[in-house]
Amino acid sequence: MTPELLAPAGNLEKLKVVVSYGANAVYLGGKNQFGLRAASENFTEEELLEAVHICHQKNVKVYVVLNSFFHDKEIQKLPLYLDFLSSIEVDAVIVSDLGVVELIRSYCSIPIHLSTQSSCLNLYSAQFWKSRGVERIVLGREVSLDEAKRIREATNLELEMFVHGSMCMAYSGNCVISNYTSGRDSNRGGCAHSCRFEYELEDNGKKVTDTFMSSKDLFGLRLLKDYQKAGISSLKIEGRMKGPLYAGTITKVYAEALKILDQGKELTQDLINQWEDELKKVSHRDYTEASLLNKASEESIYHQREESSREFDVVGLVADVVEDEFLVIEVRKKFNKGDRIEFLPFRGPHQETIIPNMYLMDDTEVDFTNPGGLVKIPYIPNIGINNIVRKRA
Ligand code: SF4
User: Fold this and answer.
1) 193 lines ligand 1 (CB under 6 A)
2) Ligand 1 atom with the shortest distance to the CA of 170
3) Ligand 1 pocket check: which of 193, 211, 215, 301 to mutate, most ligand atoms within 8 Å of Cβ?
4) Which CATH number characterizes residue 367's domain?
5) 181 lies in a domain?
6) Measuring from atom 4 of ligand 1, which residue has the nearest CA?
7) 34-72 pLDDT tens trace
8) If 184 and its partner were Cys, which of 76, 190, 356, 370 is the partner (CB 3.0–4.6 Å)?
């Protein structure tokens, strides 16, 4: 079985991008305090309805996060929201809190996925959650692929594991550094990523050392076959708060790789090198395989200041294509006539062009673009609507 590719959708636009680039499922949150990314834009009920419609048309599943830890006052508001989620037929909810699991089980039949926030790391824990009606477990990032395989064989539960993206240096969110440094609760959607700040350790007023607690980013591309052998049902890309360039690029790379595995072919070194080149073009810290093979260690710490590297900026999305005539680009960031830009097609390598000329929609020729506007450029084959347009930063 080839695992499903589960991509983040911070808002409706990002959802359309990751679906176009090959996600089999998306996870997203509503505009309430029930999920763990309060700073992400999230979805109104109307947007959620549209999201489910778009996804189900393309056979893509929608999982809604309800993985905050709830107090009594908040949990009382949940049934109304569950009624709504049931009515629009979301495919599952992602939950951390045992009380929420119990409430959902007694109230409706939406499938429950256990959030990584619950730090399920062992077989006894997995069996317990199974007995409470959980259908899928998002394992803690501390679990190795060998351990995951044993849990899968013993429980036959659907297991989901992270495959790519930022990592928490604590047991997935079970940390209060953010609460104490920023007054923002990481277990209730407010993590300020305080572990990524630079700290100085002093002894009697004398600086001893700079301290870094930030983790490198997870990179599971080279281990896709191992995830498959371990029987993992779903591979999750982190990043509901990241932009469309990030979400689209990572989804494209992993979707292409999984497709090759699905065809029973090998991921050659050449292919891996090409994909790694693509991945370098989006913002990232140094990469690590964290605990997937061996326990994460000093090697997994990101010792630099929080300036993750980014080679490219997204400057637009393709809004329309008129074959053999022109492409319409919805501009996100200014670019000029004569600039070298790249298009990221849904399949295959990126395509470069130097813009020979550009026009507004009324055919006035222009030398530069304005964010928020539309421009036409000459037609380029194999480019589709919602393809990302990027430019070297
Ligand atoms: S501050 Fe860092 S370690 Fe703490 S929850 Fe946030 S990401 Fe995790």
Assistant:
1) yes
2) 3
3) 193
4) 2.40.30.10
5) no
6) 175
7) 866 665 678 999 999 999 999 999 999 999 999 988 899
8) 190
Answer yes or no: is the C-beta of 167 below 6 A from any ligand 1 atom.
no
DSSP-assigned letter for residue 214 = P
Asked whether residue 22 is assigned to any structural domain, the reply reads yes
Q: CB of 283 closer than 6 A to ligand 1?
A: no
Same domain (yes/no): 107, 243:
yes
Domain that holds residue 55: 4-175+215-300
Coil, helix or strand at residue 248: helix
Which residues make Cβ contacts (< 8 Å) with residue 381, sequence separation at least 6?
Answer: none
Q: Is 222 in the pocket of ligand 1 (CB under 6 A)?
A: no
* Residues 329 and 316 sit within 8 Å (Cβ to Cβ): yes
Output the pTM of the full model: 0.91
Domain assignment of residue 13, yes or no: yes
pLDDT at 385 over 60: yes
- Report residue 332 CA to chain centroid gap: 21
The answer to whether residues 350 and 259 belong to one domain is no
Mean pLDDT of 1-30: 95
Instruction: Give the three-state DSSP class for 17.
Output: helix
- Tell me: do 221 and 354 sit in the same domain: no
Q: Answer yes or no: are the C-beta atoms of 287 and 219 closer than 8 Å.
A: yes
CA of 239 to the centre of ligand 1 (A): 14
Same domain? 110 vs 28: yes
